[in-house]
Amino acid sequence: MKNSRKTHRPAKFWPVLGFATLAGMRSMSAPAFLSHYFSRQPHAGLEDSRLRFLQKPMTADLLKLLAAGEVVVDKLPGTPDRIAPPPLLGRLLSGALVGAAWYQSRQGSALHGGMLGGLVAVASSFVSYALRTGISEQAGVPSALVGAGEDALVIAGGAALLHGQQPPHGEWRPL
């Protein structure tokens, strides 16, 4: 009879989908949330990686400032649509960064995580853009107001992603 004990495999796929979705909505939010997590729960998988900078508290603080600035800039009338080439590239790179870092932290392939994260961030950019403009047009409310609701969704989603993660070796310490 086979041994029915399962070995623990760290979750890689689903958290990357979540973080990359946030990157598609607000490009700096996903790296800010992930760096916040890594700065409080360093992972051995990033120790010798080029992505180890995400574990530094100063990096987390800088990314949080950039994310807050993005929330403000997003509401300005001259801000280009997220699906325009430059902002879309930023979202793709943000998703790739969080995907690569998450996979690497879980002893997975940074390349696979980066590819998954980048693709999901691009898809999320188009879906969230369509939802924001559609809601704004259908409800007859300014896009900036819908954007404020989107900001709340990003913050709640990021907090939920962080709350659902466990540090290495199953030791839970609240963030």
In words, what does this structure look like?
By secondary structure, the chain is mainly α. It is 67% helix and 0% strand. The protein is built from seven helices and no strands. Residues 170-175 have low confidence and may be disordered.
Question: Gist?
Answer:
This protein is mostly helical and 175 residues long.
Helix content: 55-70%
Poorly predicted segments: 170-175
Give me the Rg, rounded. Answer: 17 Å
Question: What share of the residues does DSSP label as strand, in percent?
Answer: under 5%
Name the average pLDDT: 90
**Main pleated-sheet profile:** none
What's the structural blueprint in terms of helices and strands?
Elements (H helix, E strand, L loop, with lengths): L12 H13 L3 H12 L3 H4 L9 H17 L11 H21 L4 H30 L3 H21 L12
Helix pairs in contact: 1-2, 1-5, 1-6, 1-7, 2-4, 2-7, 5-6, 6-7
Considering the chains and any ligands shown, give keywords for the structure.
single chain, 175 residues, 7 helices, elongated
